[in-house]
Fold each of these.
Amino acid sequence: MQKRLVLDHNQIAIILRRFCHQLIENHDDFKNTVFLGLQPRGPIVLDKLVALLEEISGVKVPFGYLDATFHRDDFRRRDLPLTANETKINFLIEGKKVVLVDDVLYKGRSVRAAMDAMIAFGRPQKVELMILIDRKYTRDYPIKPDYFGRQVNTLETQHVSVEWKDKGFEQDAIWITEKDKS
């Protein structure tokens, strides 16, 4: 399998630090801001971001994990049923600024579903999207990130693979690979 490195662990660390500084500039002491990691891979990015944000700003920010499985437009169209992940939100988002966090933005379907799922917790004042990798030119929906680490041009035959050291990989890294043709 052919792999091309997009971001190594040092670059990912720089991007997460940049995200923190952008958030500090754009959100007044986070008094009215909450963070939601989109299941299944967004919580990994969110946990790293929140720890770094608290270290840099000294402010504890409310965060949770949102599963949008049952709000997906392809939920009933699959051969095998999707497995839901845990939604873990112990606050209302009514009138709050919400920052949705995920690893890769591809077609936009997961983000659209997440916005539907999020409404169960209240109507937000504003929603922002933060992602590590923006796969440009692949959207099915007009969704665009407010914060992104790197934009990449990819083919439909390619996959963006995000590896985390705390998930058993040698180090944090993001790769572009060819999709398995089987």
Note: Residues 72 and 110 are 7 Å apart (CA to CA).
Amino acid sequence: MGEMLIGLYVFVLATVAGRELIGKVPPTLHTPLMSGANAISGIAIVGALVITASAEWRAVEVLGVVAIAMATINVVGGFMVTDRMLEMFRKD
């Protein structure tokens, strides 16, 4: 139970800190930061794969698969948006 509370505490703090940081990003830095966030989501995919593979409980397996799917959607969608934005700067 103690580990769960610590995990919840870290999650809430990360959510609040992330919201504050993202809210202060100027539009000119949005694309480079989004590319960096895609790399972090790639790391999240690897972590979710490791945790899901070693899961002992069914609930952990299900949450791991959900995490893998959501992080994959984030990576693919982020790179698609980044590519479209960078295409605006290419000369014909």
Note: The CA atoms of residues 13 and 19 lie 10 Å apart.
Amino acid sequence: MNLIENLKWRYATKKFDSTKKIPLKKLEYLKEAVQLSVSSYGLQLYKVLIIEDKKLRKKLKAASWDQSQITDASQLFVFCHYNERGDEHIDEYIQLAAETQNIPVSTLKGYGDFMKNSLSRQTDSEWESWAKRQTYLALSNLLMASAELKIDACPMEGFEPEKYNQILGLEEKGLSASVLATVGYRSGDDETQFRPKVRKPFERLFEEI
């Protein structure tokens, strides 16, 4: 039942202790948790930027409603989705799957064609919505892994994606910022940590049919 206790412990941290850094070994653990996230078809059509540079984060803070977490946290994770649905993403996945599972690429051609056909049917709006949702699945793994290590985290949608794209040069890479997460260690001055967690009771949240 450690997962439930860890989830009860975590909260969206509003103030971080800027003097505390996440040890490298624990940061690698968080990265592996993100790497192991579920995703539609297993494609992982996103890239995650882990930003420590203070000058860069100061610029990003201005594009994040001036929220202090951006600069005070140990690291800033920026989850980015790909803007285009190019077949090369699927081809790369099929090649990686063949190498990892030690099977001929030809045996996976049917699955590759299925994915290409399925994604090609999406409108541009549907693609963008779908691609963004993939990053939230990865974000969830980051939050749970952070809680397990007693590392504080704050998922953040309060930012200007267009400005992030410009500052980080994402458009040139075919990417757009989807959602953020700051990770580190809570400040003793963060009053939010002392508030009881507010969640709907089971009888209002669930309906068993």
Note: The chain has a mean pLDDT of 97.
Amino acid sequence: MSSLSENPADLDPSDPTGEVHVRAEAYRNWGRWGEDDAVGTLNFIDPAQRLRAAQLVTEGVSVSLGQEFNEDGPQKGWKKRNNPVHTMTGTGLDAERTVDAAPHGIGGADDLIVMPLQCSTQWDGLGHIFDHGYAWNGRRAGDVVTTQGDQVTGMEHAASAIVSRGVLLDLGRHLRPETGELEDGYAITVQDLQACIAAQGPSSGVGRGDILLIRTGQLARVRRDGWGDYAGGPAPGLSLTTAGWLHRSEIAAIATDTWGFEVRPNEFHDSFQPLHQVVIPNMGLTVGEMWDLEGIGRACAERGRYEFFLAAQPLPITGAVGSPINPIAVL
């Protein structure tokens, strides 16, 4: 029988539907910010929270948390997710050969890029995942996302919202100090999260309006060994049993250095991304994936400080259900 146990051993591996349902019902935020809400838990970030975050800047050191966008990325074409295709529409060679074609010898270069919005470092928007045909805030999925895009919760609504206190929980270093890397298939538990906070100290306390970053170390491993099945294959990640903790903590958003945020293979015989199904359409939680947390992981470990000012605004692509980003942490 499904329960709200936060011990993965208590999950019924044969009943993903029941395990998802009980958590969706328990942690659902529908109506919490009104029937017209479009940003879910990003509402936890208020001006006072941003002022507190700004006060964390003491060194002026900035760290990019974004992977590069190029044709050498991890994507394999699942659901037409391919790596970016970058094309030059004007080059220096063109300018050299046509010096007299433009006034006073001026030349220039231009380019374009074709890519899925979720092919590298990105946010999952609230229109990305549905639960039994329903989207965030209890709306019918077909009324939200149409052939014209997300008509209600498109990424443009979050364009200025995701600026707050960032907190890194380096589970890789905490649980595997000898390597700094969790093994694929490791399910991070509530106990793991709480123990990591205690070990890292007061600067890693997690609360309302924070953007929580979880470093597993998987990205470091695939950069060393090759992409392999990074895009969609086995990975360390959060257990479904962390849903209650994510809800109680009132974080604004969460991001990891893995393709899918939650543990893969998933914790059931026949399932696909059950934690997504709970936290995005029911909790209204914005989820980030494929973030590069190596630089910020080193910076935090060197300082013994795990909080920082974080700006991770999506591109305001009208109607998008996800967005590429280059998050910046400032220490």
Note: The chain has a mean pLDDT of 97.
